[in-house]
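Researcher: Please predict.
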Amino acid sequence: MPAASLKRDPIPETFETLEELDAFWSAHSLAAYEDLTHVVRVQVALVAEEPGSMIELRPATADRLRRRADERGTSISALLEEILELALPE
């Protein structure tokens, strides 16, 4: 039987708390609402929460780093690590 023809409760427009959201989805199967789903693509950047781990760059500098990293087939982070290792020998 197609999911759209199953008897189901409407999904609330909003949830006031995470607990309300959890209670709803703990009592309902996503399979009953599959016809309302769609594929999404997301990109997530994980950032260390250690104080001082973030640096700010001028946009022009960031663009140069991005281009150089692309030319070398590496990430900006890896390129910066290499540059800092050369600039800050032990």
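Model: The chain has a mean pLDDT of 84.
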